[in-house]
Amino acid sequence: MDVGSIPVAFLAGFVSFLAPCVLPLVPGYLSAVSAVEADKLGQPGTSRRVVVASLPFVLGFTAFFVALGIGAALVGGSLFDDQFLLEKIAGFILVVFGLAFMGLLPWPERLVGAGLLQGARSRGSRVLLGGAFAVCAAPCIGPVLAGILVLAGSADTVVEGGLLLGVYSLGLAVPFVLTAAVFTRSMGAFRGIRDHYRAIQVGGGAIMVALGLLLFFERFYVLRVYLNRFLNWLGIEPAF
Predict the structure, then answer these.
(1) Could you read off the pLDDT of 23-34 as tens digits, one per residue?
(2) Which of 87, 115, 133, 228 lies 20 to 30 Å from 3, alpha-carbon distance?
């Protein structure tokens, strides 16, 4: 796994948080996991309770996505012994998903597993609710998630595949927990970002296409070169 894919995975998680099927539902999920009414989120004295309650929820969807990453790495490693061929196939698929994310290619967006949400809520498990959320959101955030799974499938080891999806989950978890901590101010900021979601789609899709082309033409190491230069500019000694 190239280190340049790590910030890409984190950014992909953040973009997934802004998806139309995720961001508008955040207040409902925060209310469900914390037992705080949606219209009372952000009131004094509720922030700590909501943040603590959201952590098992985050753990639930992280476990689901990491399992997907491990599965993608296992499938990629078992089907293809030729790493260069695997990277070319992964690059091609990534380009297709990037074009789909930009809306230039059709992509089926159908909510699945909605019954899991009700089942998890009836059991009172925040971890299960997080896992159910991941299953239900997967079709909508499919192009972004699939792109990261492609990178995980081309990873050298199963651990690296799981790590990449763990970073993706972190990118999704950080804004979720921040929203729980400062609900009123964060939702105001996210509304502005949501209003420019089309630009985010185009930018995110373009990044996926660029990554796919780098993989296909065996130039993914370019990311490492520029990341090293950026760290040197910040005065940080690269660890790779």
Answers:
(1) 878 888 888 888
(2) 133
